[in-house]
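$ ./design --mode recover --in tokens.txt
reading tokens...
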């Protein structure tokens, strides 16, 4: 069995290989308790599994192109930073627009209430009179009959 580790340490592939080795060691330790026939079937299955194992492709990193002047760099840079900050700027601008629209609506509602109070037949002081609330209640009761 090939025990060389081709993956860089700390990578997911190295972790998978280490996990696979631990599982194989556990299975081999339990193999001593099995009958000879079962052990041979497991060994044959293990050989088939190792033969069918897919090889992990080794990817090369993308080339970093750094050019002077107006050309954009493929390896990152300020274009990448702008691209990552742009959604945050759009979110903040949207929240500010929503705030302005809501404040405008509140102002319009208050202006409508004020204009209704000022153009009504009753003076504004009548709405603060405790007897006026009683008058409204009794007039509503009389209107219902």
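writing sequence...
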């Amino acid at each position: 069995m090939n025990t060389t580790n081709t993956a860089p340490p700390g990578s997911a592939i190295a972790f998978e290989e280490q996990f696979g080795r631990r599982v194989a060691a556990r299975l081999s330790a339990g193999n001593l308790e099995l009958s000879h026939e079962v052990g041979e079937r497991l060994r044959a299955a293990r050989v088939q599994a190792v033969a069918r194992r897919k090889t992990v492709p080794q990817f090369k990193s993308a080339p970093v192109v750094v050019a002077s002047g107006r050309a954009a760099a493929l390896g990152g840079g300020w274009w990448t930073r702008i691209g990552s900050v742009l959604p945050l700027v759009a979110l903040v601008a949207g929240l500010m627009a929503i705030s302005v629209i809501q404040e405008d609506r509140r102002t319009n509602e208050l202006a409508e209430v004020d204009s209704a109070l000022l153009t009504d037949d009753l003076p504004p002081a009548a709405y603060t009179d405790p007897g006026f609330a009683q008058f409204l209640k009794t007039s509503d009761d009389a209107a219902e009959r």
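exit 0
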